[in-house]
Structures are given as C-alpha cells and as structure tokens.
Write a structure and sequence with these properties.
The chain has 215 residues and is of the alpha/beta class. It is 42% helix and 12% strand. Helix 1 crosses helix 4.
C-alpha cells in the first residue's frame, strides 16, 4: 500500500452540517437585510467563520466595524450551536460508517481536517470521535482552505508524508487545499463543482475502498 492515511473534511463529507451553517448565516443576514442564496452558500463551504462573514458582508456591500463583526461572529455561532444541539448518529451521511470500517481494517490512519471550530462537538454528538487518530480543526490552524495548512498538519501529526495522504472533500476550497499540499483528493459531490479532484464520487454508498483508493 503506497497510501497510508485518509484525511476527512467534516461538514458535507461525514455529516451534513452545511444546511445548518446556511440557516445560521441566513438568520444572521437579517441584521443587515441581506438574503444569502444557496449558490453563495456553496462558496462558503470549507471557508472559516470569520472569512465567511467577510465574504457575506462584501456581497451585501455592508461595511461593518470590527466590534460589529465580533458580535455577529458570536451571534452566528450561537444560532449554529443551537441548530446542531440535537445532532445524533442518524446524521452521519450514508455509507460513511461502512467506509470507515473498511479503511480501518486495511490499516489506514484516519484524521480529520476541518475548518470548523465546532468539529469536536459534532464528532462527539454523532459518535464519530473514536474513529479518529488525530483531529485538526479550526482551533489548530491559522490559515483557511484553500491553504493546505489543515491537511499538512494532519499528515505531520500522523507521521506520514503528504504524498501518502488521500483527502476527502466536498468543497472546492478543500480540494484546492489538498492539491496544494501535494495530496490526492477525492471529491464528494458533483463533478461540475469538484472538477479539480483526482476522483469524484456522489457519496460513500456502496463504495469499495480497495477500488476507490487505487490511483
Ligand atoms: C467548515 C464549513 C464552513 C464553516 C467552517 C467553520 O469548513 O464547511 O461552512 O464556515 O467549517 O465552521 P465553524 O463551526 O468554526 O463556524
Ligand atoms: Mg466540507
């Protein structure tokens, strides 16, 4: 086996929290009379909280003070935490557990590489935490995807080289981050959005890891 580690994004790959982020940003947008669209939300996937707010304010053509931004970042997260408070293992995306069972048995190391500062709470609520050898989340990085920092820290922490890693991502920015880090990228979602990935699958349903992880 030439690949030794699988690095997973969280939102949109293991669980579907994108919908909760969307709802929370839409609610926050009411503060400055802005209606966020689904297309715009797509561009926020994989992007840190603060950068997401900056982009939304730019789309809204609204210049906020630093204090206002700080308040809104807290407000957005409060809304989001409320929305995810009842998450449970039923919200793990289809096929994910079967896939984790396979790669664990094959000896791959498993890490999380997420921009979210709430990653650990979500992994706990969904009982996914025990699957991970290492968690790199938004609290451990300074640069947002498409910078490769989150995945490079994952490789380093697992003690493998970047070229031995395969990244699973649902966001354009995440695929770019994996490629910039010199890793293989498997896109989860649509080919049209994730064209830069080495392979794209719609989801993990029926996926046979020995086939998928062959490059
Ligand atoms: C993930 C999501 C983004 C989100 C970011 C930060 O990458 O795809 O939509 O903005 O995490 O999440 P957080 O939970 O820290 O606000
Ligand atoms: Mg994602």
């Amino acid at each position: 086996m030439s690949y030794k580690a699988c690095l997973f994004d969280l939102d949109g790959v293991l669980v579907d929290t994108a919908i909760y982020h969307f709802q929370a940003w839409k609610k926050l947008g009411e503060n400055f009379n802005y209606q966020l669209t689904e297309e715009q939300n797509e561009q926020l996937k994989g992007i840190s909280r603060v950068e997401s707010l900056n982009r939304i304010l730019a789309w809204a053509n609204f210049s906020a003070t630093a204090e206002q931004k700080e308040t809104w970042l807290i407000e957005k997260n409060t809304i989001y935490l409320d929305l995810i408070s009842n998450m449970n293992p039923n919200e793990i995306l289809p096929g994910v557990i079967d896939f984790l069972v396979q790669i664990k048995a094959e000896g791959y190391k498993i890490a999380l590489g997420s921009a979210s500062k709430n990653a650990e709470i979500i992994l706990e609520k969904t009982n996914l935490l025990p699957w991970f050898d290492l968690i790199i989340d938004g609290n451990k990085v300074t640069k947002s995807k498409p910078d490769p920092e989150v995945f490079l820290k994952g490789a380093e922490g697992l003690g493998v080289s970047a070229s031995e890693c395969i990244v699973f991502e649902d966001a354009q920015a995440g695929v770019e981050a994996a490629k910039a880090g010199g890793m293989k990228a498997i896109g989860i979602g649509e080919d049209t959005v994730l064209g830069r990935a080495d392979k794209v699958i719609p989801n993990f349903v029926g996926i046979f890891s020995a086939d998928l992880l062959k490059f």
